[in-house]
Each structure stands twice: as structure tokens, then as C-alpha cells.
Amino acid sequence: MTELIEKGKQSFHLAEDALAKGYYWLSCFLFHQSVELSLKGILEATKNTHPFSHNLTELIKELGLPVPPDILQACVNLNPHYISARYAMFSYYQREDAENCKKNAEVILKWLKIF
Length: 115
Known about the structure:
This protein is an all-alpha fold.
């Protein structure tokens, strides 16, 4: 297991903690990070490199595998949170947003067999 995959797992657990504490903006960012780091870890392990991108759709396509539509949609759903979670007012994010991000991250990470 690469260090990036381990950081991806840690980011997921930190996102759960942030959600539980009501830091919804942070949990959305960390759920995105959990997937991004996991994808980059897999790419590093299989191809010895990864794109310098935060776009989950681009990263998952780099795997070179057929990606089911629901997994691609989960990537699309998480993508905006890399930027908006850090630059929007924190009150913009609600519990429902964080729970949706968690569901999307779980779907992707289970498909990747990280969880």
C-alpha cells in the first residue's frame, strides 16, 4: 500500500470526524481528498506516476479501466468541493452536503477496493 493510499484512508476518517463536529465544509473537502489521494496512490503503484490534477473524473479515467456510470457521477459530484469547500463561506455547507460527499466518497472507495 502506498503512502498516498494511506493518506486517503486517513483523510476519509478525518472527514467523518469533521462531519460529526459540524465542520461540514471541511468534511466535504476531506472526502474529496480521500478519493484524490487514493486514486493517485493507485496510479503511482501501477504506473509509477500520476497526473498533477485534482479532477477526480480525470484521475479515475487514468486507471485505464471501464468505469461504471455511477462511479463517474460520484466523481462529478465530489469535484467542486476541492475548491468551493475552501473558498465559500463555511455557512454555505450544511450537514446534507457533507453526508452526500461521504456517500459519494464511499461508493468510489469501495469500487476501488480501498474500503
